[in-house]
Every structure is written in C-alpha cells, then in structure tokens.
Protein 1
Amino acid sequence: MMDLILDVVSWALLSAGGVFVLIGGIGALRMPNLYTRMHAASVTDTMGAVLVLTGVMLQAGLSLATIKLAAILLFLLVTSPTASYALASAALLAGIKPDAGHAADEATDS
Amino acid sequence: MTIVFGIFLLTLLVITALGIVHTRNLFVAVMLLGIFSLLIALNFFILDAADVALTEAAVGAGISTVLFLGALALTSERERLGTRHRWLSLAVVASATLVVLYATFDKPRFGDPNAPVHQHVAPWYLEKTPEYVDIPNVVTAVLGSFRGYDTLGEVFVVFTAGIGVLFLLSSRRGGANHRPPGERDASGIGLREHVIPRVVGRLLVPFILLFGLYVQFHGEYGPGGGFQAGALIAAAFILYALIEGEDRTLAAVPQRWLNALMVGGALLYGGVGLAGIVLGSNFLDYSVLGADPVAGQHLGIILIEAGVGMTVTGTLLSIFHAFAARDRA
C-alpha cells in the first residue's frame, strides 16, 4: 500500500515536472526577446528541476542515491539563479535594453 | 528503452553538429560544442560507460568551452568566409561519409554479445581483475594496470600538448607585455564587482575541489580517476580565476607550482614504472611494489592515478593562464 502511494505521488511529481519543463521550453522558443525568454526558461531550472528530482527521490527511497539527488537539487537551486543573474547582467552590459514592448533583441546603446 | 533514448540523443547530436557547421558566429559554435559534448556524455552514460561520460562532461563541456572562449577573446567571434574549396571539401566529406556508412553494414548488432569486441580480451579482463587487481571498477584496472602503457602514453600526450601551448602562448611576465597593476582593465580583475556570482562562486570552489579529490581517489571503486579529477580540480581554479581575477589565482597557485605539477605527474607515472624494473620485474608491473601482488597493484594504481591527475590539472591550468595572460597583454 505504501509503495503504491509513493509510486502515485512520484508519478504525479514527475509528470508535473515534465509539464513545467515543456512550458519552459515553449516559452524559451516563443517569447519575443532575451529577458522574457530567460524568464520562461527559468521555469525549467526551478519548478521543473525541483519536481522531477523530488519525484526521482521518492523512487529511490531512503538510500545514498537520495542524498546525492538532494545534493544535486541544492546545487541547482544555488547555481541556476546565479547563472541567470550573470547572463542578464552580461546582456545588460552588452546594451540589450529590458523592454517588453520590443519585438527582438537589438543593441540600443547610442 | 535504451534504443529509444539512444536514437533520440543521437538525433539531437546530429542536429547540434549541423548547427555547429552552419553557424557563422564562433561564439554560438562554442556553445553548441558544449551542448554536443553533454549529449555525447549522456549517450556514453546510457551505454553504461560512466567513466567516459564523466570525462567527456568535465573536459568536453567544461574545460574545452572555457579554453575556446579564451581563444575567442583573442580573435574575432565571426568566422571568416572561405568559399574557395567548398566543393572539394564537400566531395571529400561526402565520400568519407559513404565509406563509413558502407562500413556500418558489417558492424554487429547493437548490444550483440557475440560481437568481436566482447569476445577478444574483455572477458579475460573481467575474469582476472578480481584475482590480479581486486578492485571493483574494472575500467580503472584496465586503464591503470593491464594497459598501463597506453595510459602512460596519454599522460605524455597531455604533457606534450601543455608544453606546446606554453611555447606558443606563454608571455614572460615583466617583458614587453607587462603593465603596472593600476592599469589593468576589467578583464584582469574578473567579476570582483559582481557580488552574487562572487559569493556563490567562492562558496562552490571548495566543494568542487572536494568532489575532484573524491573522483581522484574513488576511481578504484566507482567511475572516476585521474583524468576526470584533474579536469574538475582545474575547473575549480578556473572558476576562482573568473570571479576573483587571474592575478589572485596565480598568487594562490603560482605558475611554477603548475609546471611542477605537470612535470611531477609525468615523472611520478614513469617513476612507478621504473620502480617495477628496479624491484625485479617489468616496466609498469605494480605487483612487486607491495607486500603481496594485489597490495602492490593497489599502491601502483593509486600512484599512477595521482600522477595522471597532477599532470592533467597542471596542464589545463597552464593552458588557461597562457590564454588569459595573452588576453590582458
């Protein structure tokens, strides 16, 4: 019975994580400029990664694999916002203005 | 299921390769090369080649990308259009592809247990590793002990590559390129102004180093070994150089230490081999190093893996510093 519940919960978490990754992917393709694309892609790093890794952890049970997965999750939660910050900061320095009305990325440093 | 994943990953691999060839922006090409390496590492992993996957991910996707970016910082990010011999190159590539395609018809089926590669020496290694070397990771036993000559050759290749790059790129400090410390531009001081990457980076460096040492000394029991560990440790120092500036990294680990690591690793490997001769056996036979043959094998493998790790770390960091020094000059 316990196994069944765990399987159902982890299945739900994995599917939800998959949906978030899909949304992030579609957003990264369809959004108009760099900052909005980054905004969409960040869904993959946060919700997608958390849900998928939690789902896998439930499958692994109490073992060394779960501790490794938790470490990976912690690592991702620290590094991916930092990488996003570095990317956005580099884009800003390169002269791409965060303007939602713009259709595409043009360097507007005059 | 493995086949489905394999076909999916290989399709992505072909798409990425076409993207690399097609793009004229070398920066994009470098990023795609990183993705290419990650995809091929995943492929290795689903084929149960965890050691190779780890190497590919650390060296291909990590260090090479940084070195390519270092090279791009010295040149332009636009590819120069060369249209002269296009048809000739296309013909050469097309005929080579046809030959390779023709050759694949003779290959054994995927995962065929009767394939020659599974019948030649592999069963002997699998059977004899517990008896001769007695470590769980057969890959390390094959790499370090059974085929120690090959790995020695690889270490010397890495060493030679490092010497070559240093000869080509190294700029003597204090020479014509030297600038007073005050005049350094932003590239010299890294990301010191950016608090978030700096804090996170400083937090991560010790953990990456620790993981590198784990991979180094756990290579007998799990995936890992000197090559992967060397790349990881070099990556930790490169991260430190990116956030704190190259001069502080060189102050922490001076170039002569790196040279000593490069030379010392190769010498250690060769020395372990010679110790075998001195103790009355063959070159690179570790059995005579310890009280009994198995303990000798353990000691020999740990020593030569340490040599590999030292040379790889020293070489990769020297190459990185050589590029970075040119950048600033």
Note: Chain B is about 75% helix and 0% strand.
Protein 2
Amino acid sequence: MFHTISEKILALKSGLKEVYPGELVTAHPDKVMSHDNAGLVIRHFRTIGAEKVFDPKKIIIPLDHRVPAESERTAAAHKSIREFVIEQGIENFYDIKEGICHQVMVENGHVKPGELILGTDSHTTSYGCLAAASSGIGATEMAAVWATGELWLRVPETIRIEINGRFIHGVTSKDLALFLLGQLTARGADYKAVEYYGGVIDNIPVSGRFTLCNMSMEMGAKFGIVPYDNETAKYIKGRVKNDYTVFSADPDAVYSKRYKFDISEMTPQIAKPHRVDNVVPLSEAAGIKIDQVVIGSCTNGRIDDLQIAADILKDKKVNSRVRLLVIPGSRSIYLQAIKQGILEILLNAEAVILNPGCGPCLGAHQGILAPGEKCLATTNRNFKGRMGSTDAEVYLSSPIVAAKAAIIGEIPEKVDPA
Amino acid sequence: MSNNKLNGKVFKYGDSIDTDVIIPARYCTSFHAEDLAPHCLEDLDVTFASRVKSGDVIVAGHNFGCGSSRENAPIAIRGAGASCVIARSFARIFYRNSINIGLPILIAPDAVDGIEDGDQVEVDPTTGIIHNLTKPGEWQADPFPEDIEKIIKIGGLVNYVKERLAQVYDEAVET
C-alpha cells in the first residue's frame, strides 16, 4: 500500500477499497457544518424540493459571522435558521452566544480523527488539527449534501511538509504558517492536501496545530492534516467517544511534492498588504505605525493566544493612538479567560473585549477601518478592503507581535522575552 | 448551460483576484444577484459594474477566486452580466461554486496569454474553444472531468440533485 492519510479517509467515506489522486468520488461526510450562511443553504434546500435533511445529527450550525445581528437582513437570516433547526430537529445548533464555528466544532467534540467533514466556510480545513480531513464547500453544494448525504469530491494529491529544528523565543505556529505561505505562495497547495510532519509539529499543541491547518487554506489546500499522536489523544479525551479510526500515511505513500524546512533561525513573520503570501521577517516591517490591533479569530483566538497577550500587556497600557480589540474564540474560552484573570489584565491595559465571533476579521462589523488606517491582526486574511476601507491596510502576525505592537503603536523590531 | 456560443468584450485582470474584491463582505448580507451585481469587483475596478455588458468575459491569471467560500462571488459575476471567466487557474471553492451555480469557467493559460483587455472574444462553453475576434487566436480550454460535465450540462447542482432525487423517489414508488 502506498496511500496518504487523505486518500485513506476519502476511500473509506466513498465506500471504496482505495482511491487515487485525480479520481472523482462520491463521498459521505461524517459531519457537515454551516454558519450564518446556513440561511442561503436553506433557500437552496427548498429550491431542490427536499423535505427532510439526510441526518439531523450530522448537521452542526453555529452562528458566528455577524453576531449579534448587525443588520435587519442578517437578523432575518438568523431567524430563518432558528426556525429551520426546529423544523428539521437539528440539535447541534449553537446560537450567537457560543463562538466561532470552527472553535465550537473542535471544542464540543464534533471533530474526530479520521473523519471527513465539510463546511460552508473556507477555514473548515482547521479540523486537520485533530487528524480529520475537512474542507470548505459552497452553499449550493451544502444544500445537496443536506438533501442526499453525499457530494462529489476530487481526490487531491498530497504535499508532505516536514518541519525540523525548534522555535526560537517568541516564534509560534502562526509565524510558521505565515512562513510557509511565503515559501509555497497562496496557490502553492491549490486543490492539494497537506500533511505536516517533523519534530516541530510533534511539539505543537492542538491549539497551534489549529492555526496551521486553518492557514493551510490560504495556500489553497483542500485539507491540512497533522497526523494523530499523543497531543491529539490528550485533546479529544473526554470530548469524543472512543469510536474513531486513526489513519497514518503508508511509508511509501506517494506525495506530489515534499518540502523540508529547518526553522531554528526563523524570526516572527508578517504578511503585508494585500496578499497573504506577501510575507517578510518581522524586522522588515518594523516601525510601521498601527491604528488598530485585533487579537482573535478562528486563527488565533484561543486561550493560549489570549494568555500570551495578557503576559505582554500586564501592567502596561495600550498606546493612546491604538485601539486594541480582543475577541475570545468561544464562550468557553471567554469564561476561562475570566477565571484566569486574563480579561482583567487586558481591560486594565485598556483593550476592548468583543463577544466571541468573527467580528472585524471579515469586515462585516465591529472594528471597520477608515481610509488610510493600518491594522495589525492575528486573523487570516489581509485582502484589499477585507476589514473595511479599500484604502486601509491589514498586516497579519502572531498574538505576541500584535500585543507588543499595541503597546508601542507600531510593528516592533523584535519580540523580547515577555 | 446552453449550447449557444458566448460573445463579449474582455475585462482582463491579474493573479489572485480574491473573493473579497469580487464581492466585499459588506454586501454579502444579500444572496440576490441584483443586489450584488452593482458592487461586483468594485474594490478592484470601480468602473467594472457600470462598463460590463451582458455576455462580456472576464480573463484573469492564476488562483482566480481565492479566499472565502462565499457563493455570492460567482453570483455577483453572473449577475453583473459576465458570461464566463477564463483564467490560468481557479481557487478550489470558487471553481466548485461556479460549476454548482452554472457560471461557465474555463482553464486556459494560453488563451490568457493571447487575449488582451478590450478584445472581443467568442467562447463555446460546450467544446471549450475560445476564439479571439480582435486579433487572430484560437485556444482549447482544459476539458472538465465527465462527472462534472454532467452537472454543467444540466445547469448546475440544484438541477442535478433534483433529477437524482426524482429518480430515487421513482424507484421508491416502483419497489
């Protein structure tokens, strides 16, 4: 046998003995996820003329993109979703209080190793942090899945990325994700699965793997997978039933490309406007004045991200020219941040704490930028107009760099020990 | 998709045209083509929506449609009047969404090289043949896999699934 993890998962979920890259299969996902755009999925579902969803237990709907509703239109969409989940008996509905869809999925045991999960959000690739094959799809095709329980998928080629060495102080998995984007570019993994290996990956906890798999999408990847290990087992213990299958790649698995990087010299990284692969080492972006800092999103809104920001901002003040927005990724993270005293530190530093959700990441509401403004964000995209004005600029970084920048009001030269 | 050839003026753009410039999130509270169309590509080219005429063709570089899974992007393009998109390559979710909503997309790197902004082109979405009417040039787009071709021919995934469900119901009645 010579198959990758993605090939094994897709074969099983398509009822086939084995599958090969390039092949189109009809796959049966274990779970499907939609957020606020479930409103559009429902419309398509009605157009199709289906009456009942294929399996209400397999559908998860967290509302997170525009929460609480920022407009009458969104309010109406949310209302239609609330009515639909009652009508169809969809129990895994998380209303606006719960958090960002991907965080909610992983936290609440909706993701198991070896599963195939599809979601109407591009960052669905995140679930690879628990060794699942997961990917974003459109609303029309989600309606088709709701109606039939199946969908066509192309079996992707797999890219093997091995990361060796060790992170130097102040460097995190977000910097690694940005570094890889700079190396492979925003289309370097188009239509491909990515598998991550190496000593550095082994030592990254699930939270950091989440960031890496989340950002794999920005390289165009269909799946981003960190293979199952003790870290995975530790995280899912108590969250999921012990009825999952662990897949590993065969020793002679066929990869379309292999990359090996030693990151022992890697410094923090910055993605400059307006492309995610416009990546430079921190020193090359140092000194750029910042108007707003955002710490949060499905990429970097977890407890360790907030903790590290609090460590840096403890007994300090956010620069008077800067607005610091902090968005805990979920209600549970929010609660934990309260219990650990993180929010008190951040509030004393004069940060603005927003409710769990996507907030300014996609520029729908909460923290829209004015023309000429610059934002440093721990989010995942810096496209033109992404966070408001098309004359604004978004820079991407780790929470450490973002917290430092919030204090000094500009992108720092380096990150000293906190 | 009909068998009629498409004929229109080319709007040519570069690489990595992302979904945020195709249709910014601030307009994505609507799924309706008529709401989205006036803002299509406005963050990249404010004149696009007012200049594009029914049948016109978007030609672009690599990774067209990268970014969000928002289906509003191909809906906006179709709503604005563009008849198809020719690119060196497409981002995967945009590729899927376009096929599923019935917006013709063609992968034809050579055609992208040979076509300039403002050229008049004729496109046969059935055969994938692209013909430049302004200056000599004819290209063949990469063919779609057979199963995807079926979805395109029937006008998108909604029709495809409707037909499939009808078959399932018929079989259920028969047995």
Note: Residues 72-88 of chain A form the longest helix (17 residues).
